[in-house]
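FIELD: query
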Amino acid sequence: MICIELAAKHLGMNLDGALVVVHGFGNVGLVTAKHLAKKGCKIIAVSDSTSSIDNSKVIDVNAAIDNKAKTGKVRSFPGTEPITNDELLSLKCDVLVPAAFEQVIHVGNAEKVKTRLIIEGANGPIATEAARILYDKGIFIVLDTLANAGGVIVSYFE
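FIELD: result
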């Protein structure tokens, strides 16, 4: 969350009303979505290991968390449409948080990414070859070595 706030400030972005897509609604993505919603961001799409969902207006993050706790997945959340991971990653948004697994953004889909800011919540979510494509598109990326460092440190202590 701190990395997102600082990157947004650096880019002159206002987080209040910013459109956010979170790939991975687990330990990192779920908590990030919750904090971003408190800051006034509009979470428009999330995914978990079973599916991705989209609501072009806004997803009530707390209700989505409750739904996932009850059903074990985001797929059944009312008022949303199921989409593929590639569709989720190509949604137009202000902030994209890939927080699920490695190399989810690769040369096959990097050109379709439409965001201003990527915060790497997962370990290595952008393939090396894809990073050049994103940089050339002018997308600002906060690398996992900074954005996810806290998770790595805590895991070490655990």
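FIELD: remark
The mean pLDDT is 92.
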